[in-house]
Amino acid sequence: MSPTQFDMMILVLGVCGILLVASFVGHVLERRLSPDGTNAAIENLNARINAWWVMAILIAIAFVAGPIGVLLLFAFCSFAALREFVTLTNTRRADHWALATAFFVVLPVQYVLLWIEDYEIFTVFIPVYAFLLMPIISAVRGDTQHFLVRIAEVQWALMICVFCASHVPALLTLHIPGYEGRNVLLIAFLVIVVQLSDVLQYVWGKMVGRTKIAPRLSPSKTLEGFLGGVASASLFGAGLWWITPFSPLQAGAMAFLITLMGFFGGLVMSAIKRDRGVKDWGHLIDGHGGLIDRLDSVVFSAPIFFHLTRYFWSPA
Amino acid sequence: MDDWGEFMKSLIAKPVAVIVLLFARVITAVRPFWHEGRLPRRRSIFFANHSSHGDFILIWAVLPPRLRRRVRPVAGADYWLKSRLRGFIGRDVFNAVLIERSRDRRTADPFESMGTAMKEGSSLILFPEGTRNQSDEPLQPFKSGLYHLAASHPDFELVPVWIANLNRVMPKGEFVPIPLICTVTFGEPMHLAEGEAKDMFLERARGALLALAPKKAAAEKVDE
User: Fold this and answer.
1) Which residue of A168, A184, A194, B142 is 20 to 30 Å from B119, comparing CA positions?
2) Beta carbons of A83 and B216 less than 8 Å apart
3) How many C-beta neighbours within 10 Å does residue A159 have?
4) pLDDT value of residue B136
């Protein structure tokens, strides 16, 4: 067994352990407080824990399958996220071809560029080429009503759901001296820290949360939950330094940045939901809502994490 | 030779149905909302808004398999018998009750065909607007067929079903579907009331269906 596989196994065992504890607590709570399934909060908690099992198993399978598995997993995430996002936009019939291009050309091409590791094009494909191409396709149809709103929404959807999300598997393409063959652990680091931060913010908020931090955007988020979640997830990230190319201090700083971006990403995506008058982005994940509800913090932290790691640890 | 053809058709029909359902799910991630969380009864007439040829597929997709096996969509023969492929999909894959919409070309009474299907224990999916809705109105006036079925089959529950968003997935004239999330909302089952007049009943049914439409779709928000 290679050191990478060994580290991965420890991670898998750790995640399994945490989920086992969570399932056990959820089960006890259900027996105590909601024996006939009437306590919505407990039912939702257990639905969430079960969904966590499914998500963890899917990610583990993708990791075992190697780079192609990870790419396919995140390409599917981009697809499902884009489907949720576009559902809430103001598209009109004239956008039909632009949207078809977004789903069936731009999205696959972005992931193919990752597969062939063409960083030069990968990093400008959506911000430059799609950015200019999509409004052209819409304009050719001649419908000018709300034109700027429509093309801006489609571009934003592509940036968030495809460009930003694709930076998670992009971590596989980094060449870090002394870290060869271990890049998949960087993805594990990012995903574990972000998701743990989300969960810890929720837990801290439930336990000691008093002060609402953004009552108009996200009434359940509290200052105490934010501080406690970010601090504990950053500490946990520092403790995961052994799977990264970072020192413990650097790993902690990275984790801190990741959790901050994740928190504010959640706020931004909440603002969009409030504007559109929906509670969840969709219904893909039982108990969590849509895929974007789970992915929002990852999407905001992944590009920053990718670029900082590339800038400081990967020599050109 | 013909027997052989029929046998082959029935052999391919099942996998084709599975592929169509899978495709519909990938594109629309369709989700049902049941009335008070209860599944519909075995003998029902589902009546829905009609904006796309794929409408009945979504209703079909969300019904649990044991109900789905006994549900037959009522569809226009003029559309579904236009080519051999459509005929195969309409008749063999979806087991549609095909009716002739234009009076002059009728060889069989549409109510007889529907009645036979119901007598055999099938539920029906019906689009009482008659044709696909291409107007800006959310719902066109109902044709009277629903009333006649309700009057002749009081043992069937009439279930209004609102299909949301499918018209955005594939607007008329386009052939590439855009992946968007669709929902299928089932309303409270209804019956023809004692002595209820045709127009009153049709208006009541139309109102019940319209009440299931999403309050203000995001798509229309900017247009205010």
Assistant:
1) B142
2) no
3) 17
4) 79
